[in-house]
Design a protein that fits this description.
- The structure holds two protein chains of two kinds.
- In chain A, helix 2 packs parallel to helix 3, helix 2 runs antiparallel to helix 10 and helix 6 packs across helix 7.
- Helix content of chain A is 44%, strand content 12%.
- In chain A, strands 1-2-3-4-5-6-7-8 form an eight-stranded parallel barrel, surrounded by six helices.
- By secondary structure, chain A is α/β, with parallel strands linked by helices.
- Chain B is of the alpha/beta class.
- Chain B folds into two domains: 142 residues, 3-Layer(aba) Sandwich (Rossmann fold), CATH 3.40.50; 141 residues, Dihydrodipicolinate Reductase, domain 2 (2-Layer Sandwich).
- Chain B is built from ten helices and eleven strands.
- A six-stranded parallel β-sheet of chain B has the order 3-2-1-4-5-6, sandwiched between helices. A five-stranded mixed β-sheet of chain B has the order 8-7-9-11-10.
- The longest helix of chain B has 22 residues.
- Chain B is globular and about 60 Å long.
- The chains are: A alpha/beta, B alpha/beta.
- At the A-B interface, helix 14 of A face strand 7, helix 7, helix 8, strand 8 and strand 9 of B.
- Chain A: It catalyses: (S)-4-hydroxy-2-oxopentanoate = acetaldehyde + pyruvate.
- Chain A: It comes from Marinobacterium zhoushanense.
- Chain A: This is 4-hydroxy-2-oxovalerate aldolase.
- Chain A: It is an enzyme of class 4 (lyase).
- Chain A: InterPro entries: 2-IPM_HCS-like, 4OH_2_O-val_aldolase, Aldolase_TIM, DmpG_comm, DRE_TIM_HOA, PYR_CT.
């Protein structure tokens, strides 16, 4: 593979996707110190929000230690060069949250929908564009449909005003060939002015390999998180990707050693559990299930005595999509009843 | 003798047609007119085949028939944008408006919770909130009538096929309206609503989760009994309304996991979200008719205008 001379913009997820792995309990001080160190290391874009995006604070997804306003308000003024992004899932967050984020200085908004439901993003993408934000359409669980469907949905988002489209492997299910096909089709068919991005999860340990495939196929933005702090087995570990890209001659503009130090000195110490491809995280990737279901399934296992793996496999079989965390306890209760455990 | 109230349905789409099919079975409401704006529309054709009068000139085309046909109830299944005008014109003629759009210019109505009060007050415009609201607010109210609810949250999961373009273009309206009604009707001090659209095939039946955080330790026995009673109340007009799991108690959290299967009249059974709206709208009109028949309320006075 030859990526020599290519340029890519890395986007850190540890303070947003990483919130899933921390049950949304990262403190404001931790956010500020990590974001500041990443800024210093040259990270161009850092996402800061509840794991489920603006407005995600809920019983369903977990109440965070602090509000989105508090996190964004603390981090953004400290940034010297890095820009801060926020995630928004229509159906959870609203344009009111979007306006709040804009006022606090968020420069990039990523409007995320399930990969077949792009038309729920119209009002949010349109407004973000009107407010001159860097506006990203983020198509989640992109492994569930063929490339042509992703393209069709991407075109809707471009039509609403998105200037960048993400193919998002929320389940960490994709293998490199699929990434090549989907990113390649988006790159070939969408106008040159529209950037393409890839967001991976490391559930099948494909985070780095998939990101390389995406860059080769034309992606200009790659999500990952320093030390891999993210849902499931985490996101593509950025310090690893950064080292690999350095060796391949692909420019990231990021200081590798400083990024390694952020991972080792700041992020690993705050992990509540090792972020690794354990049995349940591997099941997410293998069965094609939304990565943030991991800890919920493990909690249901403890409470109702049904294995997290069995719950996750059944959720995959039922075609659950991002945001359906409530189905986990519901399903565990039903399975426990069937087994006569309750 | 003539106890049935005569009604007009505005909007011959999926909702209007499903409503018409349910109304044909009602003991209290008689559908007389279907109003649309396109004479060639499938919906108006269906309505004609089902034996009711149709009008393709919008609400203005029906106004002259209101008094002579003794129309007392109107159902608006069009859009929030035109609802206010539709309502004003028909209210002026003494027609009670049941609003199935998200316009919400009148008070929210969730039948087992507050319909009786609206009927007794002869509210001339009531709003049916949202599908997610109809499916979940009865459960929030079932908890809050036992003890105060600090926070009520509902998650509605609906099949992609059952969500029309109107809802998709303004999905924020769903979350805002539903959250507002969780507070105003459900009785939670703070409300939150989430909607998830799932494209699985075959389409999934509408699922709803209701989480309440109670003030103090939840009174488990009283809440469980209240929830089961409320489920029965909703089942009177939506037989496919089911408590799948719960109430589950965890600290001060009370959670109910619901499923809503429709009757499968015009809309498929999985579209319980649409069915519960039409069923609740019809139930609302029936309550007005019952109250009028037993003399608890007097419908607006009306005399045949002098005509040239």
């Amino acid at each position: 593979m030859n990526l020599q001379g290519k340029k890519v913009r890395l986007h850190d997820m540890s303070l947003r996707d990483g919130m899933h792995a921390k049950r949304h309990q990262i403190s404001v001080d931790e956010m500020v110190s990590i974001a500041t160190a990443m800024d210093e290391a040259g990270m161009p874009l850092i996402e800061v929000t509840h794991g489920d995006g603006l407005g995600g604070a809920s019983v369903n997804y977990g109440f965070p230690a602090h509000t989105d306003e508090e996190y964004l308000g603390a981090v953004i003024p400290k940034m010297k060069q890095a820009k801060v992004s926020a995630l928004l899932l229509p159906g959870i967050g609203t344009v009111d949250h979007l306006k709040m984020a804009k006022e606090l200085g968020v420069s990039t908004i990523r409007v995320a929908t399930h990969c077949t439901e792009a038309d729920v993003s119209q009002q949010h993408i349109t407004m973000a564009r009107e407010m001159n934000m860097d506006t990203v359409g983020f198509l989640m669980m992109a492994h569930m449909v063929p490339a042509a469907k992703i393209l069709e949905q991407a075109r809707l988002m471009v039509g609403y005003g998105a200037n960048c489209i993400y193919c998002t492997d929320s389940a960490g299910y994709m293998l490199p060939d699929e990434v090549t096909e989907k990113i390649g089709l988006l790159r070939n068919e969408l106008p040159d002015t529209i950037e393409i991005g890839f967001h991976g999860h490391h559930n099948m340990a494909m985070g780095v390999a998939n990101s390389l495939a995406a860059i080769e196929a034309g992606a200009a933005r790659i999500d990952g998180s320093v030390a891999g702090l993210g849902a499931g087995a985490g996101n593509t570990p950025l310090e690893v990707l950064c080292a690999v890209l350095d060796r391949m001659g692909c420019a990231t503009g990021i200081d590798l050693y400083k990024t390694m130090d952020v991972a080792e000195d700041l992020i690993v110490p705050l992990m509540d559990q090792p972020i690794r491809v354990d049995r349940d995280a591997l099941t997410l990737g293998y069965a094609g299930v939304y990565s943030s279901f991991l800890l919920f399934a493990q909690r249901a296992e403890k409470k109702y005595g049904i294995s997290a793996r069995d719950i996750l496999v059944e959720l995959g079989r039922r075609g659950t999509v991002g945001g359906q965390e409530d189905m986990i306890e519901d399903l565990a209760l039903t399975m426990a009843k069937q087994k006569g455990l309750i | 003798m003539a106890k049935k109230l005569k009604a007009v349905i505005i909007g011959p789409g999926n909702i209007g047609t499903d409503l018409l099919m349910k109304m044909k079975r009602s003991e209290w409401i008689e559908p007389v007119w279907m109003v649309g704006i396109d004479p060639e529309s499938e919906g108006l054709k269906r309505a004609r085949e089902m034996g009711i009068k149709t009008c393709a000139e919008g609400v203005d085309g029906i106004l002259k028939h209101v008094v002579e046909d003794d129309i007392r109830i109107a159902f608006d299944a069009t859009s929030a944008y035109v609802h206010a005008e539709n309502s004003r014109k028909l209210n002026e003629l003494g027609v009670i408006m049941i609003d199935l759009t998200p316009a919400a210019i009148g008070p929210y109505c969730v039948p087992p919770v507050n319909l009786a009060a609206h009927a007794q007050n002869l509210e001339m415009n009531v709003n049916m909130v949202t599908c997610g609201g109809q499916a979940t607010i009865p459960m929030v109210a079932a908890v809050s009538r036992v003890q105060p609810v600090e926070y009520g949250e509902i998650i509605a999961t609906v099949s992609s096929r059952s969500v029309g373009p109107g809802t998709r273009q303004n999905i924020d309206e769903f979350t805002r309206t539903t959250a507002g009604a969780v507070e105003k009707v459900g009785g939670a001090k703070k409300g939150k609503a989430i909607i998830i659209i799932n494209p699985a095939e075959p389409p999934l039946i509408m699922r709803d989760t209701v989480h309440c955080l109670t003030e103090g330790e939840p009174n488990q026995d009283a809440i469980t009994e209240s929830v089961h009673q409320m489920v029965k109340e909703v089942q009177k007009y939506v037989p496919g309304y089911r408590l799948v799991n719960g109430p589950v108690f965890d600290g001060n959290r009370v959670s109910c996991f619901m499923e809503v299967e429709g009757l499968g009249d015009f809309l498929p059974k999985y579209a319980g979200n649409l069915d519960i709206m039409t069923a609740a709208g019809l139930r609302t009109a029936e309550m007005f008719a019952e109250e009028a028949a037993n003399g608890t309320i007097d419908l607006p006075e009306r005399s045949l205008p002098a005509r040239g």
